Amino acid sequence: TLHMKMSNTTRSGDIIHLNVGGKRFSTSRQTLMWVPDSFFSSLLSGRISTLKDETGAIFIDRDPSLFATILNFLRTKELYPRSISVHMLMHEAEFYGITPLVRKLQLCDELDRSSCGNVLFNGYLPPPGTLSDTGMVRIICGHHNWIAVAYAQFVVCYRVKESTGWQQVFTSPRLDWVIDRVALNAKVMAGSLGDNDKMVAVASGTEIILWAICPDGNGNEIGVFSLNVPVEALFFVGNQLIATSHTGKVGVWNAVTKHWQNQDVVPISSYDTAGSFLILGCNNGSIYYIDVQKFPLRMKDNDLLVTELYRDPTEDAITALSVYLTPKTSDSGNWIEIAYGTSSGTVRVIVQHPETVGSGPQLFQTFSVHRSPVTKIMLSEKHLISVCADNNHVRTWTVTRFRGMISTQPGSTPLTSFKILSLDDVDGHGGCSAGTEIGPYGERDDQQVFIQRVVPDTDKLYVRLSSNGKRVCEVRSVDGTSITAFMVHECEGSSRIGSRPRRYLFSGHGNGSIQMWDLTTAMEIAGKVDIRGETLSTDKTLLSTGVTTEDAALIRIGGLRSPLLSKMKNVNMSKTSFSPLFCNNLSLFCIKLWCKRLYLCKGIYNRFLRGGLLWPVLVIKGGFSPPP
């Protein structure tokens, strides 16, 4: 009897009841203890204090769904993660100290990750070998086929050639202070620096250092300048180096006179450049401009000539600016368009007509869709994009143009609303704000993108179209290091005829390396996916109207059989989902077919706006009645 009692006690002690996140589990002591030095071995040996629920089960405040997979591994020594994230499961396995499981999950993770990246990975620049302990990359900027990479106390310049690839060209001396801003000019005009046709500048606090880079890679220090107030923006306009501060200071270095000049203006809240013009948005609601190429000075005091261009009707602070110059090939003359955002969340578009140069820009459109200050704005050829301070809330509009100029018919129409969520870095380990701007990046006559880094300490970036927020691609560090800086830049193509610039995403990392990603290929792949999806949607729409699969295929490849017209006679085009591009192509197919078969006297296009379809209404010799 005594032996039976001891046996029952032993068996009941071998069964362990657990309450994990409110869900009950029962297992044996042997199952939990077979991995040495784990959380469970410490828990059951008394090295970790236990908390029990009302039934006496040991309470563990963790995710029960993940624990179920871990417990199954402890029972069977097999891994079946099913739909659970490998990263989340690895995090839990590390918490419980299940070393064999962690190793298996690391292997699973490595199978999905290549040290050579995916098809978008384009190159890797290791940390500079000349200086030890480079630290993380703080800022990356680019100009033509050059990039400048700023570390904490020095800057490195790289140049790319088709034959040799990326090569390190210049490394600055180590500075005594931390770099906050960097600017690069890889194409100095008119030989103003002699043989030194490249310039790079860095700023920290109130100080600015400017170097000229020789063809052999040596750098000559042009000078050290002071803005007397903290520098918050540093950039080149042509050959002139510009520094600005929100306090109302503008510093200009003239490449011709080699002279640095500080200028007091109204407190600055935004800026943009257009050609040789520096456009300033100020706290008093005014927009000013300076022609830095001419470097005009007032005769009485030798100050910069700062001219007021426009004043906001409500005199709200101009917190974001974007200037769009119409293409030189158009007949619009000096037509200039400016979009700006204010501290109250208002977005306005003003235009300067060639015939109203003397009277200044005219207010064109106003949008009151933001309830927080506008932080970024972009007016491009096809879109108007604004971002406000409410977690990077983005609003976009389509822009209608006629001969390159913005048009009122039908005017700018709302397109999308989305957010580019990005958590702020609080400890400084995620880089500096100047190196992690979300964008939008890209030429104004091309598709522009936002770069999203959701959390500061991450090895992932998301590339999203600025026009609609759709994800183009996701890039992930090839070596697992955190991303501390990023930038999108177009590099010129080869000298071969027909070669076009290619767009790259440059990511700087915590170990000092630079990784490059081919965004041109990413955009092409994303475009093919969209076209494939639209083709499937078009086929479904055609089939729903009674068109056969064969006829749908004929439409897509450019052929159209005449019986198809009778099949589509009763289709209500306002209820279909044809894209404008498809509809226009369909119209052209109809015209081509009819012109081959009929003697055409005269052709007239009649736009059916409701259906978005350009149906040709043809006047045919011989009294032919056109289809409806």
TrEMBL record:
Q: Which Pfam families match?
A: BTB_2
Domain BTB, chain residue ranges per copy: 14-83
Entry's Gene Ontology BP terms: protein homooligomerization
The UniProt keywords, alphabetically, are: Cell membrane, Membrane, Phosphoprotein, Repeat, WD repeat
The reply to whether Phosphoprotein figures as a keyword in the UniProt entry is yes
Is this entry keyworded Membrane?
Answer: yes
State the coiled-coil residue ranges: none
- What subcellular locations does the record give? Cell membrane
| Xref: CDD domains | BTB_POZ_SHKBP1
Record's GO cellular component terms? plasma membrane
Q: Which InterPro entries match?
A: BTB/POZ_dom, SHKBP1/KCTD3, SHKBP1_KCTD3_BTB_POZ, SKP1/BTB/POZ_sf, T1-type_BTB, WD40/YVTN_repeat-like_dom_sf, WD40_repeat_dom_sf, WD40_rpt
Provide the function of this protein. Accessory subunit of potassium/sodium hyperpolarization-activated cyclic nucleotide-gated channel 3 (HCN3) up-regulating its cell-surface expression and current density without affecting its voltage dependence and kinetics.
Question: Hey, which family's this protein in?
Answer: Belongs to the KCTD3 family.
How this chain assembles, per its entry, is: Interacts with HCN3.
Q: What is the protein's name according to its record?
A: BTB/POZ domain-containing protein KCTD3
Its encoding gene is what?
Answer: shkbp1
